[in-house]
Automatic annotation (TrEMBL):
Protein name from the UniProt record: Citrate synthase
Family: Belongs to the citrate synthase family.
InterPro entries documented for this protein: Citrate_synth-like_lrg_a-sub, Citrate_synth-like_sm_a-sub, Citrate_synthase, Citrate_synthase_AS, Citrate_synthase_bac-typ, Citrate_synthase_sf, Citrate_synthase_typ-I
Domain of life from the UniProt record: Bacteria
Pathway: Carbohydrate metabolism; tricarboxylic acid cycle; isocitrate from oxaloacetate: step 1/2
Organism expressing this protein natively: Helicobacter gastrocanis
Pfam families attached to this UniProt entry: Citrate_synt
Keyword Ribosomal protein: no
Catalytic activity: oxaloacetate + acetyl-CoA + H2O = citrate + CoA + H(+)
Length: 426
């Protein structure tokens, strides 16, 4: 099938082939638009423009569906661990049994340590610097320790690069947090699972009577591990969002892959992207009381008020975010099993959702709760500090960035990202 473009001024006709997608609408191949017609498209924010072909994840915004490698997100969250999803995104294969799953996870555990010189560099940052700034810098510095990844000639090289950063990102992230509060750095414990280690490195303190890097006891329940595992799975990949597109665009220059991922972290930091989960909880605290909800909802609808309700609406989803549905059930399940949410904030959040879902203003604009609306309250219940919410997002998303980056560099036809501009100056 082809599409014909007609220039009304010259009556010239230009034929463009369409690309059949396995899911979703077909695309017009405009890659030669300028060369053949002398004009180019104008699409601010790239809402109608595909910059790549991908097999990694797919979103159906109208139906509220999300798939990783063809698997619905609901199935992956219910049946598999986060490390299994990592294997799926990096190798196209889920573990076939528990042994395969453990082997992959053990590789990540053993790669989780970072060079002591890099740990010392974190002491140069101001303690009040946001952990996302330190994390982005730390990942960029990591490229100096593994400079050979700048040239990946084989699949083994690419897998080593990806597994190394997926393994080390929790260690780097928790160092950023502990540096902020002035606490001793806790090294990974390979006897603990990938997910448990994240909570361990956040919470543990060295025992004064123990030597050789051993740590005192810290309580981490299987329920907490399961909850964080599901949260990371829900954040593993999400199509060509702002940070993923940033990673691909930066990688297109031939830069070291960790520099591209560092750029993705900086993009994710924004409050309109990954930083929204932090803003949601801050906003619930600002509302302060369930009796104030109507007042804040009215502010949202006031065109003269700049107030925006965080955690509602999505650039792609025009129905209920499937990740938000899962997190809402997870929150209720955790409460039923004894994990305590902040009762005041939970009451406010429930009231905000109740009012918004019945209000014509929100219904007409397809403003439904998104993943950020519930993730913050759950992370808070897991004793994870608010300033660490977005770094948790980074931990979950790093594997998606790696999968996207590898897909990009393995494409022989890929070109450096170079959008056009509509020049309207003098």
């Amino acid at each position: 099938m082809s599409i014909t473009l007609i220039n009304n001024e010259t009556n010239e006709k230009f034929e463009f082939e369409t690309i059949n997608c396995t899911r979703g609408p077909n695309a017009i191949d405009f890659s030669k638009l300028f060369e053949t017609s002398g004009i180019f498209s104008y699409d601010p924010g790239y809402a109608s423009t595909a910059g790549c072909k991908s097999t990694i994840s797919y979103i159906d915004g109208k139906k509220g569906e999300l798939y990783y490698k063809g698997y619905p997100i609901e199935e992956l969250v219910a049946k598999y661990k986060y490390v299994d999803v990592c294997k799926l995104l990096l190798t196209d294969q889920l573990p076939q049994n528990d042994t395969e799953s453990l082997e992959f996870e053990l590789e990540l555990r053993h790669r989780s340590f970072i060079h002591r010189t890099l740990m010392n560099m974190f002491s140069a940052f101001p303690t009040n610097a946001h952990p996302m700034a330190k994390l982005s810098s730390g990942v960029s510095i990591l490229s100096t320790f593994y400079f050979d990844h700048a040239k990946m000639d084989s699949e083994e090289d690419r897998q080593t690069m990806a597994r190394r950063i997926v393994a080390k990102i929790p260690t780097l992230a928790t160092i950023c947090y502990r540096n902020e509060i002035g606490a001793p750095i806790i090294h990974p414990d390979i006897s603990r699972s990938y997910i448990e280690n994240i909570l361990f490195m956040l919470r543990a303190y060295p025992h004064e009577r123990l030597k050789h890097g051993l740590h005192g006891e810290v309580e981490i329940t299987p329920l907490e591990v399961e909850a964080l595992d599901k949260i990371l799975t829900l954040h593993a990949d999400h199509g060509q969002n702002a940070s993923t597109t940033t990673v691909r665009n930066v990688a297109s220059t031939g830069v070291h892959p960790y520099a591209a991922i560092s750029a993705g972290i900086s993009a994710l930091w924004g409050h309109l992207h990954g930083g929204a989960n932090e803003k949601v909880l801050n906003q619930l605290e600002e509302i302060g009381d369930v009796k104030n909800v109507d007042q804040y909802i009215a502010r949202v609808k006031d065109k003269n008020d700049s107030f925006k309700l965080m955690g509602f609406g999505h650039r792609v989803y025009k129905s209920y975010d499937p990740r938000a549905k899962i997190l809402k059930r997870l929150k209720d399940d955790l409460q039923a099993k004894g994990i305590k949410m902040n009762p005041k904030l939970d009451e406010i959040a429930a009231k905000v959702e109740e009012v918004a879902l019945k209000d014509d203003y929100f219904i007409e604009r397809n403003l439904y709760p998104n993943v950020d609306f519930y993730s913050g309250t759950i992370l808070r219940a897991l004793q994870i500090p608010v300033r660490f919410f977005t770094p948790v997002f980074v931990i979950g998303r790093t594997v998606g960035w790696c999968a996207q980056l590898l897909e990009h560099v393995k494409n022989a036809q890929v070109r450096i990202a170079r959008p056009r501009q509509v020049y309207i100056g003098k």
